[in-house]
Specification:
The complex is a heterodimer of chains A (1001) and B (193). Chain A has 1001 residues and is an alpha+beta fold. Chain A contains 26 helices and 50 strands. Chain A is elongated and about 115 Å long. In chain B, 45% of the residues are buried. Chain B is built from 5 helices and 11 strands. In chain B, helix 2 packs antiparallel against helix 3. The longest helix of chain B has 12 residues. The chains are: A alpha+beta (1001), B alpha+beta (193).
């Protein structure tokens, strides 16, 4: 492979001297020039084959020059910097770049699986649906996955960082070509916040690769001046290297900026603080889409051979990078635009250029130009076939008889570079995502914007306006209109540009495929190996919708996402079904327009920062006492192991301490909603099942609440702090949604109630002191409150001073022991924990965690809503029927609880369970069944919801919900789980101290 | 007699002093030690409520999205019937009890919130860019000038952003999320050096 001659680049954007840049491809060292893409550097080094196709492993060379590239997918770098499926055309060359080809073994030039191409007839579209049936798809999956497939997913964590940022602007312009720049000038000069985004390194769009003149000077000079002016405007933001990938509702768009990605790992590693990519979340008042257009490949046999490239790509490589990947050029086209390729290469000194045009009639002016340049023209000819497997050697041409049919008489013309064009497809992906619709433009043979549904304009080639003059003028007008829409004075002094390109560039006559030739070698989707024959197969099998054909054949899927292939496919469907192109319609374009790395979407929300977590106010105390933490949204101590204790030993010790001495627990996460106002009692009474109106000041009551269907939502202790002031405790994990539930009813259902809600959960830190000796500990603390049992009994509440700070103390219990729930402002969290621990030292006070609490409450049969109830459970299932009957007022759910089904005696009711063999643990989630036999079908009677070993009772116990459970006390049932059956007995939920004598001991 | 020590900052609990506070030519982010925060709820057109607040706090209730300051006291609008009052910690107990007294019999309430929030201040040329990483609202100084406040999502959680004085912002977060929040701040501020 010899490097090819480099030509001077157009417009002089990069200056004259281009520095040499070293890089590696497939382990071989090469040199490119500054300003090259990996693709242009590979071409400059004579690398013809850059990859193998997805299915048939055919050798592939570069066919495009930017986002339309379907063949040049490479694996970039390795380890923490690895990126699969990078488009070689979009990777700017940097010193030390390392890339590998994909989908080939041992290498792209000799790929063992290249043999698959010989069996292409056996592998038509979706062959796997028809053949890989027996025994199962999974049998084949292991073989198919490595054969078909693209890059390798990185195996180590990404070494780079990714960030996100919001951006608000008045006018967002997507596309920095002539139309976009011109629009930015018109809008930017008005002083509005304007953002101009382009996915290339430099602004200029198509002008980067064309030899156009503006006002007599190279167009890039105009670009340079315009960008210079825009960068002086204080409210204009220029975002090059930024790909707008998604357009959503309310003019919200997402764009990924390559901040350091284009510099490679060496530079990125030095700037580790700077993100590799930044995801912009753009909120725009007005959007202008100036995304240009993509050229379509002409469809003929072996149009995928290395050396066959889009005409625009051949031209761009020559003009922008100074690279021509061949010596003998042939242009095959059905429109005028490709002639520029012939003329531009001729201007570089290339001879022996042939233009093959499927149109019989060519304009006189073009013919004159070609004659003057000495370029051979074959008007009314098409490509019969391409000779050469790993590189084009010659092209066989034949007379085009019309309608895609070629004459049988074939002549062969030697050439090594075939530039093809079948017209242009406006880049309307973002418009389609925005909700806009398209219409078929017969004259230009393409889909153009039709209905617009957001504050949006489409301009330039994206709107089908292909000439430079149209781009500049409509662009400026659109920028001015956007500014005017926002009440600004936009578009002052519209200039008159004199451009070298002001004739209709197309004059296209459609030529969708070569009908007279075998269709199984005429490529439509290069990346996924979809040929005209695959569309024929789909049509033959009666696939009618273009969306179905897409899924069945995979045409236009994967990275291509309807760029080079989409339109040809739907035109072929139209041809084969005899429909018009508008009748066939187009597939829906969805984000992303270009692939966006997962890292950019994730931003900094990875690892431990994946989601917010809460810490206890006395976290340090628990750490100091060797707590093992669990994640409950809050990080809470599960247990506090001593010495070599495991979770079981520690939990048993902690439970024993509470039952026999005194324990302390951090209940800070317990939900605390303050309800204040003249109607506070009424409000809570309407929400909760229990009667709250009768609650006395200074007293507390356990209560549950249901939704309008009577289904249990939550439970907790409600304290009446004053006539018009309640403290409602909710389950720790439920406070967020309970607060919303309260607000919802207050604001939407009962706005007349004079109630204020305040979520004060984290204002207060808690230490719960519980156990037979808890009072002794409390009485050691300096306080103006009297903790004596006869004056301050179970379900009473006090406020006062404790160790010199304001405190609230509630006598309520989730352990079944005498309990003081102490709360102080969270600033004193650590101090109160230290004070209580010190005061309790002489009584052996023991901190206990969530594990011990679970055992304690299971022993007592205290339920946990959500664990011991399901999405059907109602208060009647808990035995609250009499309580409801006695409540005088209405509450949410009361109506529903009157329904027969809610009162059915056969409902699953909350019960206790204990294994007959008390040394066997009951499996949580295990189904309760009536019989020890397990032949299906077996009717489930309910299931085990909580289970543990009770050190207090020295046996295994459990809770559950069981069909008609409350009337089956003492009955033997069985618990089925994972093939095992355990005999158990239905008992009352309270396994320990059923009368609650210890609460007031 | 044992005296319980109050905590006034969170940052040192969760992140190292090498990482936080953040101070460079582009960005300064630090934690403001605890101050009194009292949640005021009441009807905007209730003259007794407004005059009680005016008499005790010496500030009127700010309108939608506004933030008013008088000396060491300030009030931020939170919602149509809710405000946050900020004051020195030494005033906390007295302000709370006089407000509760004055509001007795009025459909209005004052609730202690000081411990439930952590406050970070953000200043410097990159302040707006930094804030834009955490929230979706337009915080450009033209759209969000000094004296404005907004309750929004910042750093994946409910928060309040106050533009206290030109280029100087105060962010209020849930205090139990302080560890997450501070790590978020450190990560997101890293690119501004």
């Amino acid at each position: 492979m010899n490097s090819v001659q480099r030509y001077p680049v157009a417009g002089n954007v990069l200056g004259d001297a281009r520095k040499i840049v070293n890089f590696e491809f497939d382990g071989r060292a090469y040199q490119g020039l500054e300003g090259d893409t990996l693709a242009s550097a590979l071409l400059a080094n004579g690398v013809n084959i850059v990859g193998r196709s997805f299915k048939l492993h055919r050798p592939r060379g570069l066919m495009g020059s930017w986002v339309e590239e379907a063949n040049g997918l490479v694996q970039l770098e390795s380890d923490g910097f690895a990126e699969p499926n990078a488009r070689a055309t979009m990777v700017m060359l940097y010193e030390g770049l390392k890339a590998r080809s994909q989908n080939a073994w041992p290498n792209v030039n000799f790929d063992v699986l290249g043999v698959l191409d010989k069996f292409h007839r056996l592998l038509p579209a979706s062959f796997y649906y028809k053949s890989m049936i027996w025994p199962t798809w999974h049998f084949y999956e292991r073989i198919v996955r490595p054969i078909a497939g693209l890059g390798k997913a990185p195996t180590v964590q990404d070494a780079q960082n990714y960030q996100k940022r919001n951006l608000h602007c008045d006018v967002l312009i997507c596309g920095g070509g002539p139309a976009g720049i011109s629009a930015a000038l018109a809008a930017g000069r008005s002083g509005l916040r304007v953002v101009l985004v382009d996915d290339q390194e430099h602004f200029g769009g198509a002008l980067l690769g064309e030899n156009h003149l503006i006002d007599g000077a190279p167009a890039l000079k105009w670009v340079e001046a315009a960008i210079a002016e825009l960068s002086t405007l204080p409210h204009v933001r220029l975002l090059p290297r930024t790909n707008v990938s998604g357009y959503y509702e309310n003019n919200f768009l997402v764009a990924a900026e390559r901040v350091t990605a284009h510099l490679g790992p060496n530079v990125a590693a030095k700037n580790a603080r700077v993100p590799r990519e930044r995801l912009w979340r753009i909120h725009a008042k007005e959007v202008i889409l100036a995304c240009g257009a993509l050229e379509r490949p002409l469809v003929f046999p072996n149009n995928d051979r290395p050396g066959v490239m889009l005409a625009s790509a051949v031209r761009h490589y020559a003009n922008r990078f100074g690279v021509v990947a061949g010596q003998r050029l042939m242009v095959a086209t059905n429109n005028d635009s490709a002639y520029r390729t012939a003329m531009d290469l001729r201007a570089l000194g290339f001879e022996a250029i042939t233009v093959v045009d499927t149109r019989p009639e060519i304009g006189e002016e073009l013919k004159r130009q070609l004659r003057a340049a000495g370029i051979r023209l074959l008007a009314g000819y098409g490509v019969h076939d391409v000779v050469g497997k790993k590189k084009v050697k010659a092209v066989q041409v034949a007379r085009h008889l019309g309608g895609g049919n070629l004459d049988g008489e074939v002549s062969s013309i030697p050439c090594d570079l075939l530039a093809i064009s079948s017209g242009w497809t406006p880049t309307i992906h973002l418009l389609s995502q925005s909700g806009g619709s398209l219409r078929y433009d017969e004259r230009r043979a393409c889909l153009v914007p039709d209905r617009i549904t957001q504050d949006l304009q489409v301009i330039g080639a994206a709107n089908g306006d292909m000439t430079l003059a149209e781009c500049l003028i409509t662009g400026f007008a659109a920028g001015a209109r956007a500014a005017q829409n926002l009440g600004a004075n936009g578009g002052q002094g519209a200039p008159k540009w004199d451009t070298s390109d002001d004739a209709d560039p197309l004059g296209i006559q459609s030529f969708w495929f070569t009908k007279s030739r075998p269709t199984d070698k005429q490529w439509l989707d290069f990346q996924y190996d979809v040929k005209v024959s695959d569309i024929e197969l789909a049509v033959r099998e009666n696939f009618v919708s273009v969306e179905h054909v897409k899924r069945y054949t995979t045409g236009g899927m994967s990275i291509d996402q309807g760029k080079s292939s989409n339109f040809n496919i739907l035109a072929v469907i139209a041809q084969l079904t005899g429909k018009s192109i508008p009748e066939v319609g187009t597939t829906k374009f969805r984000p992303p327009y270009q692939p966006v790395t997962i890292g950019a979407f994730a931003g900094p929300t990875t690892g431990k920062q994946y989601a917010p977590w809460q810490n206890l106010p006395a976290h340090e105390w628990h750490v100091k006492h060797k707590a093992v933490f669990g994640d409950y949204g809050w990080r809470r101590p599960d247990f506090y192991p001593r010495g070599n204790e495991d979770i079981h030993a520690a939990t048993l010790r902690e439970v024993n301490a509470v039952r026999t001495g005194v324990g302390m627990f951090d209940g800070s996460p317990l939900g605390k909603i303050e309800v204040k106002g003249q109607d506070a009692a009424t409000f809570i009474d309407r929400l909760y099942v229990n009667n709250i109106a009768s609650l006395k000041v200074g007293s507390a009551r356990y209560a549950v609440l249901t939704n309008e269907n009577g289904v249990l939502l939550d439970d907790g202790i409600i304290v009446r702090m004053g006539e018009e002031h309640f403290l409602v405790h909710t389950t720790s994990g439920a406070v967020g949604r309970m607060f919303l539930h309260f607000e919802d009813y207050l604001q939407c259902e009962w706005p007349d109630l004079r109630v204020h809600l305040s979520n004060a959960t984290t204002q207060w830190a808690n230490v719960t002191v519980t156990g037979p000796k808890s009072r002794l500990v409390m009485q050691k603390l300096d306080s103006d409150m009297d903790f004596a049992g006869d004056t301050f009994s179970h379900m009473q509440f006090l406020q006062g001073s404790l160790v010199g700070v304001p405190a609230r103390v509630l006598r309520a219990s989730f352990t079944g022991e005498t309990t003081y729930e102490v709360t102080v402002p969270a600033r004193y969290a650590l101090a109160i924990w230290e004070a209580v621990y010190e005061a309790g030292a002489e009584f052996g006070i023991t901190p206990y965690g969530v594990e011990a609490l679970e055992v304690l409450r299971t022993e007592k049969g205290y339920l946990h809503i959500g664990s011991d109830t399901d999405a059907c459970s109602n208060p009647l299932d808990l035995g609250m029927g009499r309580l409801i009957d006695r409540k005088p007022s209405d509450f949410i759910g009361r109506r529903s609880l009157q329904r027969e089904c809610e009162q059915d005696a056969d409902r699953r009711q909350f019960v206790g369970l204990e294994p007959i063999d008390t040394s066997v643990r009951l499996p949580v989630g295990g189904h309760v069944i009536n019989d020890s036999r397990t032949q299906s079908p077996i009717a489930s009677q309910g299931y085990v919801t909580s289970a543990c070993f009770s050190p207090t009772l020295n046996k295994h116990i459990g809770l559950g919900i069981v069909k008609a459970g409350s009337s089956r006390m003492g009955e033997q049932v069985y618990v089925y789980s994972n093939g095992n059956v355990i005999a158990a007995r239905i008992v009352a939920p309270a396994h320990f101290d059923p009368k609650g004598e210890r609460l007031n001991a | 007699m044992l005296e319980l020590k109050a905590r006034s900052t969170h940052a040192s609990r969760w992140v190292s002093s090498a990482q936080f506070p953040i101070s460079n030519s582009l960005l300064r982010i630090e934690e403001r030690p605890m101050r009194a925060i009292i949640r005021l709820q009441g009807a905007r057109n209730d003259e007794r409520f407004e005059s009680a607040v005016q008499a005790i706090v010496k500030l009127s209730l700010p309108g939608n999205g506004a933030y008013l300051v008088n000396g060491s006291r300030s009030i931020a609008w939170v919602g149509p019937s809710e405000w946050l009052l900020f004051a020195e910690l030494q005033e906390e107990a007295e302000l709370l009890s006089s407000l509760n007294q004055a509001l007795s019999g009025v459909f209005a309430s004052a609730t202690l919130m000081s411990d439930a929030r952590i406050c970070l201040t953000v200043q410097g040329p990159a302040a707006v860019d930094f804030l834009a990483k955490g929230c979706s609202v337009d915080i450009d100084p033209n759209a969000f000038p000094p004296g404005r406040v907004i309750a929004t999502r910042m750093a994946q959680q409910p928060s309040m952003v106050i533009h206290e004085s030109p280029g100087s912002y105060a962010l209020y977060f849930e205090s139990s999320l302080a560890a997450f929040t501070l790590n978020w701040v450190i990560e997101c501020a890293a690119e501004f050096v």
